[in-house]
Write a sequence for this structure.
């Protein structure tokens, strides 16, 4: 793969691993990076602290006031954002190639020397609380949240607490909390960086050495994967979250397979879920949308398998309240048949080729390439995996796919959650006009 | 990144001109416009057909027709259908292609991003459905419920509900009045004959632009385009023209959406000229001064002070006179009127005073950087060119950065004074209420 010849690995800076890739993005550079979260992130207070810390990186630093910092970034044509994920603190930067050195200086100032003042904490807390309140009547957010609450035990790092607990946790975070978390994060975690775009790798390597020398000890501290006891062992059940005045119902089905990305069953499961619900030609879209016109979209996918976490697979779709019960019935019929009858050789071959083709095409965009490379780095892989992945997909067989589906897709264990203008029986709330005949 | 695309001589095409690495040709037989943009930095090619038809071409009873027709275009055509091996999704399924279609106010586009070896297949399929799509009643019936659920999804969004009402209040006559998805009753009831007429009115080579971008050879692409699109004649009659003009607005307008929700939103819209107007770039700079990023005036005034959780200022660059809209999402407990007043105060400052040169230069740099990054990969390039085609001039894409550089403190102040006037405004509140017990 020609792209591999343009990726340079830098491991000579203690506490830092960087990959630098020259791409065709004329005049532009994208940097993505992350630092692993400390392993005790599975309680609401720790999670809230991380969320607020991510916001605080964007505020005053020890050298620059908030306005001065933002104006400097704008004058350089750069954007910087931070996100607190379950397993890491992540940042993303867009910059112009010719101003990269200055942007790096500001980025690492923000990352290593934030002011973390009480004033800034109050301001960002208010914003984050407001954003949380906004989601309270969002049907998709609510449905997914309840799904996760039924898939994971409270001690799992992937568990999402109730709205009330999240709100209370955010209110309780103190300056001392964010300062301690920042100190531990930057001291212990290995910094992983991808720099991709219109750049000379030797120049970038020099910049990273200049700004990052002596910054951290770089112990790799990923969130430990706890496979045992992370899933609530509920029998198949359906949860309804009633929200009035909504024209569309969001519906999720989900299951925790209890494996990691490194499991030999993972890629067969990926292929199987592509057959079930990968895009327009997935069985779900063909049966539920194309044949029956019941939905605009219904898909199957995997989530939260980042960096050694035991993620889940899910089906997500939308229905009108009036067609909700019929839609659920049809989806569950597809799921049953899918696991009972298995998949065909042709289906497996087609989806493997689709996955391989999509992978190759995605590498044509610097934005997507940088995201893929960061994921590889976080997973402990090397850039070669861009090519190895294709070989591993090619090795998936019909048998391994069917085995994976039977092990991990038992319809009787699925959790089902729906959120919208339906009552506890899944019937439309009164007052909604029935649609025209189907 | 881009290779300069020099003029090619081809017996079936007339070279028109080239700018910014993009070469324009016309297929002489039928007037099809062709844009070619070679870029060999990644082994990927993108192909797109943009039809110069959108929801602006619709009327009462068939709002949403453009979009519903777009859905029907995937149901098969004379040479590409289920009985003959499959429609376009079937054919490209195992390539991992990124493909779809989109409809908006001024255009409908169909695109595929693929490895080069599939280019011929894609061109053949697109050419076939340009004039020989099935457009059947049984497909309309099935697809109507799909589109209706797409409408329902959008209706769940408070912002979308407010946006729809603001547009339909700002425009009494012009078809920008209605949302591209159409009104529910039109989606449910539009007869197939109306959709067929719409297809026969607008789906012609002389009403379309083909764009090819990425790792391909121009001569090869022209040969294929001629081979497959060259079988079509131009339309026998003139294309229908949309001639309805919006009457001048003679005073501010106000609307409210009220429903059970926690969201509270203020939207303020002002009428702005068509994208090809010389004031457009000054307006884009103005919009960025107001609302792009954390250095923007409204962010500092509203978000940094905890009145709002977010703001956005959107100058819609359309074929006809359009809107610039500021949206602010309020923090709990903050009154709509207070935020409206704060936004208008900032508008007033821009009308009254020139912005400092330093601020202007910062904003222009940020816009240009954003534009650089928006050209990352074949799909992004096709998307940007698509919107320029929709406005009526593909060179808008190429000239954008240079035009932004020309904006001055004088032109930005003049744009504020000319367009941020109360009598040209439509203000909307989304008022979330508590559920009834």
């Amino acid at each position: 793969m020609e792209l591999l010849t343009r990726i340079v690995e830098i491991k000579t800076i203690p506490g830092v691993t960087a990959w630098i890739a020259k791409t065709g993005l004329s005049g532009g550079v994208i940097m993505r990076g992350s630092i692993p979260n400390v392993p005790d992130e599975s309680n609401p207070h720790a999670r809230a602290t991380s969320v607020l810390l991510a916001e605080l990186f964007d505020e005053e630093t020890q050298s620059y006031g908030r306005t001065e910092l933002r104006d400097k970034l704008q004058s350089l044509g750069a954007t910087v954002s931070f996100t607190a994920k379950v397993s890491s603190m992540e940042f993303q930067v867009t910059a112009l190639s010719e101003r990269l050195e200055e942007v790096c200086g500001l980025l690492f100032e923000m990352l290593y020397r934030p002011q973390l003042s009480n004033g800034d904490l109050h301001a960002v807390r208010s914003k984050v609380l407001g954003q949380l309140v906004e989601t309270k009547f969002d049907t998709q957010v609510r449905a997914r949240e309840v799904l996760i609450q039924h898939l994971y035990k409270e001690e799992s790092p992937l568990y999402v607490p109730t709205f009330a607990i999240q709100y209370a946790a955010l209110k309780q975070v103190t300056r001392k909390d964010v300062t301690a978390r920042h100190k531990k994060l930057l001291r212990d975690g290995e910094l992983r960086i991808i720099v991709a775009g219109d750049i000379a790798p030797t120049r970038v390597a020099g910049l990273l050495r200049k700004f990052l020398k002596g910054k951290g000890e770089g112990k790799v501290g990923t969130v430990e994967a706890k496979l045992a006891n992370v899933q609530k062992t509920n029998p198949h059940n359906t949860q309804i979250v009633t929200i009035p005045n909504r024209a569309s119902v969001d519906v999720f089905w989900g299951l925790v397979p209890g494996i990691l990305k490194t499991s030999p069953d993972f890629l067969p499961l990926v292929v199987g879920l592509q057959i079930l619900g990968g895009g327009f030609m997935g069985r779900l879209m063909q049966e539920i949308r194309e044949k029956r016109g019941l939905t605009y979209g219904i898909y199957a996918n995997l989530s939260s398998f980042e960096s050694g976490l035991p993620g889940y697979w899910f089906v997500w779709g939308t229905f009108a309240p009036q067609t909700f019960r019929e839609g659920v019935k049809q989806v569950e019929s597809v799921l049953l048949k899918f696991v009972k009858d298995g998949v065909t050789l042709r289906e497996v071959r087609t989806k493997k080729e689709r996955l391989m083709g999509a992978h190759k095409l995605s590498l044509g965009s610097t934005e997507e390439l940088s995201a893929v490379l960061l994921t590889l780095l976080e997973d402990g892989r090397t850039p070669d995996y861009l090519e190895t992945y294709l070989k591993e997909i090619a090795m998936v067989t019909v048998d391994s796919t069917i085995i994976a589906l039977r092990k991990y897709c038992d319809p009787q264990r699925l959790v089902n959650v729906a959120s919208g203008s339906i009552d506890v029986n899944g019937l439309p709330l009164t007052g909604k006009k029935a649609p025209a005949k189907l | 990144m881009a290779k300069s695309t020099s003029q090619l001589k081809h017996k079936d095409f007339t070279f028109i001109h080239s700018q910014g690495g993009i070469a324009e040709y016309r297929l002489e037989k039928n007037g099809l416009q062709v844009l070619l943009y070679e870029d060999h930095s990644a082994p990927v090619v993108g192909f797109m057909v943009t039809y110069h038809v959108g929801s602006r071409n619709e009327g009462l009873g068939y709002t949403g027709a453009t979009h519903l027709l777009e859905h029907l275009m995937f149901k098969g055509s004379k040479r590409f259908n289920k009985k003959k091996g499959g429609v376009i999704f079937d054919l490209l399924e195992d390539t991992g292609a990124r493909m779809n279609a989109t409809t908006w106010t001024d255009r409908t586009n169909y695109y595929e991003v693929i490895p080069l070896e599939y280019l011929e297949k894609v061109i053949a399929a697109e050419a076939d459905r340009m004039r020989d799509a099935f457009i059947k009643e049984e497909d309309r019936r099935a697809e109507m419920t799909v589109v209706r659920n797409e409408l329902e999804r959008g209706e769940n969004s408070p912002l979308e509900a407010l946006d729809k009402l603001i547009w339909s209040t700002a425009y009494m006559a012009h078809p920008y009045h209605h949302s591209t998805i159409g009104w529910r009753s039109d989606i449910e009831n539009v007869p197939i004959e109306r959709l067929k007429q719409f297809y026969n009115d607008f789906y012609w080579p002389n009403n379309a632009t083909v764009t090819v971008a990425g790792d391909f050879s121009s001569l090869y692409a022209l040969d294929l385009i001629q081979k497959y699109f060259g079988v079509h004649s131009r339309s026998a009659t003139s294309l229908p023209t949309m001639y309805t003009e919006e009457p001048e607005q003679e005073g501010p307008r106000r609307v409210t959406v009220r429903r059970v929700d926690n969201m509270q939103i203020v939207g303020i819209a002002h009428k702005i000229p068509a994208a090809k107007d010389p004031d457009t770039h000054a307006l884009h700079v103005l919009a960025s001064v107001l609302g792009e990023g954390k250095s923007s005036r409204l962010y500092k005034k509203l978000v940094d002070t905890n009145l709002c959780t977010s703001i956005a200022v959107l100058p819609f660059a359309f074929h006809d006179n359009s809107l610039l809209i500021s949206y602010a999402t309020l923090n709990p407990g903050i009154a709509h009127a207070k935020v409206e007043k704060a936004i208008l105060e900032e508008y007033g400052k821009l009308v009254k005073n020139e912005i400092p040169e330093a601020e202007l230069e910062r904003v222009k740099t940020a816009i240009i950087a954003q534009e650089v990054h928006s050209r990352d990969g074949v799909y992004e390039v096709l998307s940007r060119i698509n919107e320029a085609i929709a406005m009526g001039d593909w060179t808008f894409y190429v000239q954008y950065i240079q035009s932004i550089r020309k904006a001055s403190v004088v032109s930005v102040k003049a744009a504020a004074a000319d367009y941020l006037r109360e009598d040209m405004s439509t203000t909307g509140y989304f008022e979330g209420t508590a559920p009834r017990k």
About this structure: The mean pLDDT of chain B is 95.
